[in-house]
């Protein structure tokens, strides 16, 4: 195949179709010579050339000034100027032009000085004159362009345009009367616009441009304008603060600021912007910051008006200290509002939920309205911590109980994710609490109940809560709680092993027994009660006890009948049922296998249950919702002479019935006991902390030790208490006073 | 926790129709503690059920620190934290309470 190169084809052609060699041959050089001779005489200008030309030019300028048709073409005039310049008449030409313009401008002044006319008309006329002047100067300049570019440029004098401005300024606007009239007119127009009227913005723009061009904007206008602004908004601020609600006022201020910004955009010189906006901010906001906050913040926060709060933040962030004051007012509001939630014992029931909601709301306010400003997040925390501890112990207790209600089985209102989120939120509240050990005491009590009755909603949720607490307060805080879970697991293993050994024993395996073995110290302490169990139950207990103590030497077991619970099979006339009851309830019911009717005294003797407890037990069986016993005489309370009978006619649509025990109201004594326990624990914690610190530091002065202790301890303590603990540790030879310096302690290893 | 089927089988075998109530299931609760005469360790003045003061101060990562801080009984039947006692005997091989020669009778498990 033949490949042709396109370049190769064209390379044969001569460029431009002509070859140079060719030209030489076709056009031989002619022999003729060209001779250039000197001119005989230099060209002369006509004598009155200057006058003639100026006349021409003057005519043209005057025609322009009077807006008449020009008889010469622009080309001709331009040529004329160029000629004059080239013939050294430039300076003369400039002077003549200047005086010509001066005459025209000074003539114009008369109309502005003469009679007083309507301000608006005056401005209009002024604008017209100015516009015409500019127009004329542009045309004049284009004719005298050559002058501008040569003579003026070389001699550093004002260009034709500048000369026009100078003259205009000199004659018209430096005339104080005219100047004041113009400025006042402008201010009047702006004020009108501020009052909401439509004004001719292009007029304003043009005249203000004029002032700028004449460089008298700053001196004659700006200052007065700012003063007028200040006066207007000072009055408006005073008045509207009284008249309007704060949110409306804020909206108004925002509108004003937008308007003023627009004003700058549309006709004011951009250099005025800073001063103008600053003035508006000062008069409408800074002067009123404390009043705005005092009058409106609480309302906005209470009514949760996010948009208004956002606006408030945006506005106040414009003025000096605005944010600082907003923040402290915000802080004060939280403390005040929070205190009302926390302090009132009647509202205890809803306290935690209210706190959670309140925290949620305030978080949203900080995120959405206050741009997550660090100052506000910190202030929010500080305020919560402050008010939540206004009431000692109670919030901690209620938070613990709230968590219990959420972790307890039967709480199906939330999915696991929701529960998890809720727990996270509660942890935030928990973080604020100073008496964390009070929380622990109550949490532990509830956890024990959940674990023993198998009422915990979800092991995962429990574990997750525990790990949150651990993360927050360290392993020391949760070690006992974790121990409780461990106990439950160990108990399961033990009972399995126990059953493996004893399946062969028919008598024992009739009853499905499980035992929860609790480590004393991990669990809350329970009141111990001796009760009489049926023989076969005692036997079962003993067999188990023997089994257990064989496995674990050096231990002793104490049965806790108050915590036991059972499932009883019952045969009613309507059919068999299963009753889920406490151990005490079962003991009472089991008595009715042998007798039909029993008195209170009989039951007391047979079961040996403590009187108050027994009465409550009987009440639950005979006066509650599920009355498996009949009491004579009838009544709500159990009296000394009451008799009880098995209710064979008992009916219930359920097969498995849970009979709730009647809870003793938590008495103040019990409350005190819990607190006392907490106090006891605190002493150990203080001891441990002192030893920990001293072990690390080896020797420390009293004050340093105390301050380190305050850092470590998670509950409020008085220095006097710490001193007592230190004394006690010195007595026990954990540490000693330095022999030379009595304020110094040394660690004794 | 319980094997229901197995239980029901048992119950059927042992039916005593004249009884109105039969105990089917029993969740008993017991509390264990060291079988000691005095529940405070005479050396560290902390309850023997709790970890000794030094163990607490070290705040062990193992949250079930008690397994490490067991109780020890001497022949004299006095009991202390094992940790406390092992430090004590380095100085003085006598029971701090009765001054008898210290020898271990048993250890908690």
From TrEMBL, chain A:
Task: Supply the name of the protein.
Answer: Cullin-4B
Database matches in PANTHER family: CULLIN
| Organism of provenance | Ceutorhynchus assimilis
Its primary localisation, in coarse terms, equals: cytoplasm
Gene Ontology MF terms in the entry? ubiquitin protein ligase binding
Domain Cullin neddylation residue range list = 678-743
Which family, according to UniProt? Belongs to the cullin family.
Q: Where in the cell is it found?
A: Cytoplasm; Nucleus
**Database matches in InterPro entries:** Cullin, Cullin-like_AB, Cullin_CS, Cullin_homology, Cullin_homology_sf, Cullin_N, Cullin_neddylation_domain, Cullin_repeat-like_dom_sf
Which pathway is this protein assigned to?
A: Protein modification; protein ubiquitination
* Keyword annotations from UniProtKB, A to Z: Cell cycle, Cytoplasm, DNA damage, DNA repair, Isopeptide bond, Nucleus, Phosphoprotein, Ubl conjugation, Ubl conjugation pathway
Q: Which GO terms describe its biological process?
A: DNA repair; protein ubiquitination; ribosome biogenesis; ubiquitin-dependent protein catabolic process
From TrEMBL, chain B:
Provide the protein's localization.
Answer: Cytoplasm; Nucleus
Asked whether the UniProt record includes Nucleus among its keywords, one would answer: yes
| Catalytic activity, as annotated | S-ubiquitinyl-[E2 ubiquitin-conjugating enzyme]-L-cysteine + [acceptor protein]-L-lysine = [E2 ubiquitin-conjugating enzyme]-L-cysteine + N(6)-ubiquitinyl-[acceptor protein]-L-lysine; S-[NEDD8-protein]-yl-[E2 NEDD8-conjugating enzyme]-L-cysteine + [cullin]-L-lysine = [E2 NEDD8-conjugating enzyme]-L-cysteine + N(6)-[NEDD8-protein]-yl-[cullin]-L-lysine
Organism's domain of life? Eukaryota
* SUPFAM superfamilies per UniProt: RING/U-box
> Residues in domain RING-type?
52-99
Recall the GO molecular function terms of this protein's record.
NEDD8 ligase activity; ubiquitin protein ligase activity; zinc ion binding
User: Where mainly located?
Assistant: cytoplasm
Gene3D superfamilies, alphabetized: Zinc/RING finger domain, C3HC4 (zinc finger)
GO biological process, alphabetically ordered: intracellular signal transduction; proteasome-mediated ubiquitin-dependent protein catabolic process
The cellular component terms of Gene Ontology attached to this UniProt record, alphabetical and capped at eight, are: Cul5-RING ubiquitin ligase complex; cytosol; nucleus
Its annotated pathway reads: Protein modification; protein ubiquitination
The family this protein is said to belong to: Belongs to the RING-box family.
Protein's name according to its UniProt entry: RING-box protein 2
- Organism (species): Ceutorhynchus assimilis
